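Re-run with default settings, no changes from the original entry. Doing this only to confirm the output is reproducible before filing.
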Amino acid sequence: MKNSSKSNAKSFEERLERLEKLGEKIRKTDIPLDEALAAFEEGIRLARALEKDLEKIENRIEVLMNSAEAPVDESPELELFNTDG
């Protein structure tokens, strides 16, 4: 299962890098309009897919943080915020 996590992370990173390259390509003024439009469309698809992946990751983190394994009766230490001095 760890391999699939690594391949998903790598895939996410590769797709993010591709999105960045598409953004750079679109910003160039010397590319034909058709090519810019195709890059924009691909970028939109990538951005939406990456957003869905991030939502899944956030949901998983939220589940892990709120899991039954976490001690409920412990409160966080907030010494930094104490004003007693």
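Residues 33-65 form the longest helix (33 residues). The chain has a mean pLDDT of 81.
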